[in-house]
Design goal:
homodimer, 534 residues, alpha+beta, 6-stranded mixed sheet, 15 helices, 15 strands, globular
């Protein structure tokens, strides 16, 4: 039996019916040509279910001792694992747009996992238009961290559309084959010296070298501005509707943009791709706050995991640190806003520049824990430390296939908590950037508008960077939402000969595909100099 | 603001993530001729959403004071009621059999309601075969009792297929019109004398006249056999897999039988319809336990709400009392088993015979509370008081319509708790009896087999009563399950001209329609003498 570590148990402790601690997301696929949807989805499900030995902890359930979660918690094999409980078929009501998909996933993402079983679910979702189907996965954060879940997702995929998985991607055999294929060094353990170095870093910043929990406690106080001399700009975070107590209902929306567009904006400002993502989100949040008449005088802050790994370092899973980025939402001019964001990110990165990747990992683990402590202390909505989280997860830069079905995009669904009612996570995949927005349904009632505002912000940045001319600026932004309810609903039944085709309906609305959006509004072409190189 | 009473708050207190305290059920409808499914379902949803003032507490959320649930709890109007959260469109994956419906409802019934919103959800479910659609409703037991929810369901329905609801059945206006149509006396309050009479009954049985909570506590001890002289046969309940701690996942299955068949068995044994229902369930439970090699030497006991109202009494909503019925599962002979059950029910009813309906109501309220207390004391799975619950809810004896859609059946989904992992609730409707079985997915992994065993038990009773000849007794029972996976799946897409018709697929399997089952196995015709009279 494997014992859960402090952080994993923390996710169990911090979980309430209002703040489920699972992560997941939607993946969109296109059916291979010529296959029948039902048959193909059943074959995928059969393959997923066909597990001899599970990759831990997908076959394990929690074993909680007499002291409860405060004591030791272990993984033990579920003696009566009920695979049909975990692998599920779902369907969308007609007309099967992304709107219906997001509605379903919003509901699924808001309910708790069963703690008496292995802590994951996977839905195969039928009923989309254009021969697409989707998966929605949901895994407890106590069971997998981000790196593990990305690797798991990748282990299912192949660059070759003719590849078929010989066994379930949830099986230990498949995992071992995948690892072997990666030719990765096995993950190394931290040396005592590295741990001591990190303890020194923490000691220097928190005036404390006590055991982890005590350190974290002090760290929390420092974060909240009540002592310590923490260098990071964690104070002076404005209050907003993003930083209230959350309820259990979620809204999930998603959208893709071409990587080239966002990258071009970054380059034009001598910044990074990630700077451009932050500027795009910052612009959208500013518009959202303005439209809700609550734009704070101080800038919103975002928790931003950043990559700090050295060139050529492929021991990649954990070389990520978290900084608090200033989103400069109090600055109206997009160009000036970009520069302010960029400077804030640079300052944050400088903090880590003298550490080794392993030390960075340890510090980050500690740094991200206070949010959980804040929650447990019930302080989260009174002492907001950041307003939101914006995570950029590096993905795969070429088309991938799952048993022949092309992956069209994958959109992460994450955790919102008291004090942080909005999470934006993005994955780069193929030629796109796939954004998943997870929000508390009550605190952020119009999360879907953020998608429009992000497009608007990106377009403004392109103009500010001189990448495109400012046409149509006087005109109010395109509102694809208005098209959502066609007057004459397509009557599939009335003409049974014609397979109800998605084409008959407006698609621009919520389509998480990069190409759909730009088409709708005279796509700005990136200049040659801004061509993405990666 | 209306204050919640002790019992309602109890349902909130007793709720955990493993034991959600909501009730609900599936209703099956057939689309009116000629209408388009999507259009019709959207018109139903629009009508449901069109509420000016909500029937309380459908527009109210909980307001919990500083003392939490231990203090006063009130209903207050939800200031930002989000009707789209409550009225939901859902769909079944293909082929859209009842199996897919039960899978979906099992999942929906296992998740908690959002406590920050009005405590109900309603799903409109598309994708069934044969132009059927379904609703699944879910309402917290703190918000509605059984009587209220039945009345609400009825207020939507009409005997006239041409009736269209002028306003949402969730609106106060609709409710007031419905009440006026009933010409009911307004529900009267209990007199002090009645309350004192009941206190005397409790005092006599529990040697205590203290305030309610104290009384209930002692009552619990008496129930558990630790003092008091409670006359009811609540002790000597065998342990079984039905009486373990439950987890949060549910299984829900449903089936209809002709009222005439069950009634005929009751008549033939000089018993009631309810006696026959209990005998049918008892036979099924005996088979289930035998097949799981755990048939206890002692008989299983069921909590059975019984009607104790006098002839002609129409103040019907609450004249129900609960008894513990001996299911005589230790008796092999069906006829002898029937007689034993009948005697046990008579003894239980005798307990109430000298009370007024109002007194009975009060006693029952108190009697059903200990299960909640047992849960709170964590004793439920160690001291089982009954093994299961079998509730018979009187319904409407003629076809009903919802905006023109014929109601084909309605199947209640109820609560399971630690110590009681199985609930059987039935409603009589039109010419059928609609059974809904709610079970803990882990403790009762094969709940769907109970449906087959119930048919088997009913057939045995018909033979024992001399209603039909014992044909095919040597042959093993028909297993429609085996047909569930047709080798060649119908390829709807391959022949787009043919609207995928339900007829192409096997239907007997999980069809909750009375006619489907008997057809599959040489339907035994009730003798003339057993003809149902009601």
């Amino acid at each position: 039996m494997k014992k859960l570590n402090y952080v994993d148990t923390g996710f169990l402790l911090a979980e309430t019916r209002e703040t489920p601690m699972h992560v997941g997301g939607i993946s969109l696929y296109t059916l291979p040509e010529g296959v029948d949807e039902q048959e193909f989805l059943h074959s995928l499900a059969d393959n997923l279910r066909d597990v001899d030995r599970f990759l831990p902890p997908f076959g394990d359930r929690l074993k909680i001792g007499p002291l409860g979660l405060a004591g030791n918690v272990y993984w033990e094999p579920d003696p009566a694992l009920d695979i049909d409980y975990h692998i599920r078929h779902s369907a969308l009501p007609k007309p099967g747009r992304y709107r219906e998909l997001f509605n379903l996933v919003s509901r699924l993402h808001g309910t708790l996992l069963d703690r008496n079983r292995p802590l994951w679910e996977m839905h195969l979702i039928e009923g989309l238009q254009d021969r697409q189907f989707a998966t929605y996965t949901k895994t407890h954060h106590a069971a997998v961290d981000g790196a593990r879940s990305i690797h798991l997702a990748r282990s299912m995929l192949s660059v070759d559309p003719t590849t078929r998985l010989p066994e379930s991607p949830l099986s230990l055999t498949a995992w071992e084959r995948y690892r072997a294929g990666l030719e990765l060094k096995s993950p190394r353990n931290f040396t005592d010296q590295e741990i001591r170095n990190v303890a020194d870093v923490l000691k220097a910043r928190m005036d404390s070298g006590a055991q982890v929990y005590g350190a974290l406690k002090r760290f929390t106080m420092a974060w909240a501005g009540q002592g310590g001399a923490l260098a990071l700009p964690f104070r002076q975070v404005p209050r907003s509707s993003l930083n209230t107590s959350v309820d259990s209902a979620r809204r999930f929306v998603a959208q893709s943009w071409p990587f080239a567009r966002i990258r071009a904006v970054g380059k034009a400002f001598d910044g990074t791709f990630n700077d451009a993502v932050l500027a795009m989100c910052a612009g959208a949040l500013r518009t959202y706050m303005e439209n809700h008449a609550e734009l704070p005088a101080e800038s919103l802050k975002a928790l931003v995991p950043i990559s700090v790994r050295a060139e050529g370092d492929i021991d990649s899973s954990n070389a990520v640190a978290a900084i608090s980025a200033d989103l400069a939402t109090n600055i109206k001019d997009p160009a000036k806003r970009f520069v302010a964001i960029q400077e804030s990110v640079r300052a944050g990165k400088a903090f880590y520049s003298e550490m080794s990747p392993a030390e960075v990992t340890l510090v980050s683990m500690v740094m991200q824990a206070p949010a959980m402590l804040m929650m447990q202390l019930g302080l989260a909505d009174r002492l907001p430390s950041v307003n939101t989280t914006i995570s950029n997860v590096p993905g795969i830069q070429q088309p991938m296939y799952w048993n022949g079905a092309r992956l069209d995009g994958s959109y992460p669904a994450s955790i919102v908590t008291d004090g942080m009612a909005l999470n934006i996570t993005l994955v780069t995949y193929d030629k796109n950037v796939d954004f998943g927005i997870t929000a508390c349904r009550r605190s952020v009632p119009q999360a879907q508008r953020l998608i429009d505002y992000m497009e608007q912000a990106l377009a403004e940045l392109e103009v500010a960077a001189g990448l495109v001319k400012a046409k149509r600026r006087a005109k109010p932004k395109v509102k694809p939402k208005a098209k959502a309810k066609p007057k004459a609903k397509p009557k599939a039944k009335a003409k049974p000969k014609a397979k109800p085709k998605a084409k008959a309906k407006p698609k621009a609305k919520a389509k998480p595909k990069a190409k759909a959006k730009p088409k709708a509004k005279a796509k700005p072409k990136p200049r040659p100099k801004a061509k993405p190189k990666r």
